[in-house]
Write a structure and sequence with these properties.
Layout (H helix, E strand, L loop, with lengths): L1 H32 L1 H4 L3 E4 L2 E5 L36 H17 L9 H4 L9 E2 L1 H5 L2 H8 L3 H10 L1 E2 L10 E3 H12 L1
Length: 187
């Protein structure tokens, strides 16, 4: 009977330590040290939350930069990547259709479409594009907005984020932040 009581006590102690104290302490530290990130890296405009730096949003207007394709149709409740094998006929068919759509919308990239404009990310919600993929959309946006291509190119250059800690990842551009800056330019 004594080992049973000891096991129950240990379970209660570890339940309190690991299930209550540890989560409260780490949440407290996160709120104090990294409040913006701990709360979802939300982006606000005029006091209203309009998105997150961490999740892609769908932009369909020709006057805005478009993000990567989303296997989950930009629904954050359905985070998923496609499970299609790259050698499968269905994957190739979808890829060809996507490339055709990108080329129709952005004629200047015909035959040279950046891969991240036609492929989905692992999560389906990658908020970033390569600088090349953002710049490939400049002629379409310039035609739709009347803004100078040089101005749009400078805008993309201003929003390029370098590798994390100078080592991890690739240079990238956050599409939501870029589109917010584009909106500011048009006002």
């Amino acid at each position: 009977m004594k080992p049973f009581i000891t096991a129950i006590r240990a379970a209660v102690v570890f339940l309190i330590l690991c299930g209550l104290i540890y989560p409260l302490v780490t949440t407290g530290f996160a709120q104090v040290l990294f409040a913006h990130q701990a709360n979802g890296s939300l982006v606000e405009r005029n006091g209203e939350v309009i998105g997150s730096e961490l999740l892609a949003q769908q932009f369909t207007s020709v006057a805005y930069f478009h993000p990567r394709a989303s296997a989950a149709n930009f629904d954050p409740r359905a985070s998923a990547a496609t499970n299609a094998a790259v050698a499968s006929d269905s994957f190739i068919e979808v890829l060809e259709k996507t490339v055709q759509g990108i080329e129709e919308e952005n004629p200047d990239v015909k035959g040279n479409v950046p891969a991240d404009l036609v492929t989905t990310s692992g999560s389906g919600f990658d908020p970033d594009l390569s600088p090349e993929a953002a710049k490939a959309q400049i002629p379409r946006i310039a035609a739709a907005t009347g803004l100078d291509e040089g101005t749009l190119n400078d805008l993309v250059d201003e929003h390029i984020q370098s590798r994390q800690i100078g080592v991890f990842g690739e240079e990238r551009v956050n599409v939501l932040e870029l589109n917010l800056a584009l909106s500011d330019l048009q006002q």
